[in-house]
Amino acid sequence: MTNLLPTRDPALYRELVNTLYRQSPPIFLGNIAVAGLTVFLLWNEVAHPLLLGWAGAIYLLTALRILIVRKDGRAGPHHPDATARRCWHYVFWAAVSGCLWGAMGPLFFAPDNAIVTVYTCIVLAGMTGGSVASLSAFWPAYYVYALPTVLPFALRSFAHGTPLFSVLGVLSLFLLGVNLAYSRVMQRTLADAITLRFENTALIRQLTEEKERAELANRSKSQFLAAASHDLRQPTHALGLYIATLRVAAQAPKIERDAIEMLAGRLQSALTGMSQLLNVLLDISRLDAGVIQVERRRLRLQESFDALGNQYVQAAAAKGLQLKVRRTDAWPDTDPVLLQNILSNLLSNAVRYTRHGKILLACRRRHGALEILVADTGIGIAADQFDNIFREFYQVGNIARDREQGLGLGLAIVKRTAELIGAEVGLRSVRGKGSCFTVRLPHRDAPAAGQTPSARARPLRRRDERYTVLVVDDDKQVLDGMEVLLASWGYAVIAARSLEQALDELEHAAVQLIVTDFRLAMEVTGVDVVHAVRKAMGSDVPAIIVTGDTSLQGINEASASGFKVLHKPLDPSMLQAAMVAALDISLPPKTDDEAARR
Fold it and tell me: Which pTM was predicted?
């Protein structure tokens, strides 16, 4: 039975069978009309019991088929087995109908009666030809109908043996062959039409979904920009106010040290808030750009748990919360930095949105995977908000965008980072009772003893000489600021605002490090600067590229350079660490004043 199926596509197969059922009414109507007409025209030519018995069988079968078609049609099955059952029900009854119509040939065969012979030929040819369109949706149905309809008359004609009836037999078989071949062509044409309709429907659905996604992305982008603009304006506005206050304080007859220290602290706080937002936006951009490389390795999860516990225990205690980190012996195979970033965001939210109670960080094995959970007794999240909270800048109950409640980007970063490392983020929450975020990771057994990864620190040389650093930036204020900062760290600085100026300066000095902006004037990039300087000096001078470009193209280009990339606004400590690593030196010991400030 399976070999006779017209297609392996269940949807197409189902639609062909549905078409077969939809085209049944013309067949039934034709059976009733032709049987009645036959009785009327052959009443005086054929024995009445034979004629009425045959016509009664046709009517009885037609009534039975109408009931079966109605029953199967109302069922509306979609399962392939149910579709096959409906199909072969139809095929069976089509075969019975063909046998009854084919019975006309031997039952009414009258070689000496031209009326009966001509009428029989007309009816059989008409019924087989007229059924091609109705039964060809599934060609086996037409075959089992047409063959028993025509073959008995053809065989009876050949058996009669006269030239006329032999010709009628040949013509009957020829017409049968043409109709059988045409039914296969009809089914292929119908199948192609249905397939095209399916494809058009799928294309329309896809276009509709793409349109909806584009509209949603456009709305999300507008909301994203509005929220980002608001959150950037706040610290910028605060910086302006503090700077104005600082100028007033500078004009006072007596400068109060405590007031200046207070203003400096608030300036730093506003700047930190701006840097925090820009860094998070950078994380989103880097995730979108796909430049974050996943570096998988086996790691002892307890080490990450210990680091996270140390990081958040004081913040939790300051709010009167109990942070409990349950010990684990799990060894997941994943990127430790990205995993820790995910858990850090979840713990940060748990501390922020929990007013009393406790926070739990734990890991358990479930269904062949590791499930890390961060549970709290905080404010909870309504079920209808589960999808929204993973959108950028979306925060439940923070319409005023109070930055003390966070930026609304942590969970967006969690979701995208989890997708990057192949983890699944889950959420269970009850409004007012707390939330439990889960991160599912593949599970493998812990490595054997002696196979645990170990990190070997590379010894660094002491900083016992004065290094010269080439700084290239086309923004004068940034260039001046970098020159003053690096000079305060003890470096000799060569400052240049263009590639040409940098090459001119190198004619009189050598440099040990290049720090260059990525986007310079005249479509010159920091990569061009590094290659030109290295060529001029004849050595692979280490380089650091600094960029404020957060576009996908800019991030991709900078990351593809292969050089160390830092993003504006720069954290001075990160810049210092990058320079130390590039020069392969150790940091100078901190003075007592520096240690106190830190």
Answer: 0.43
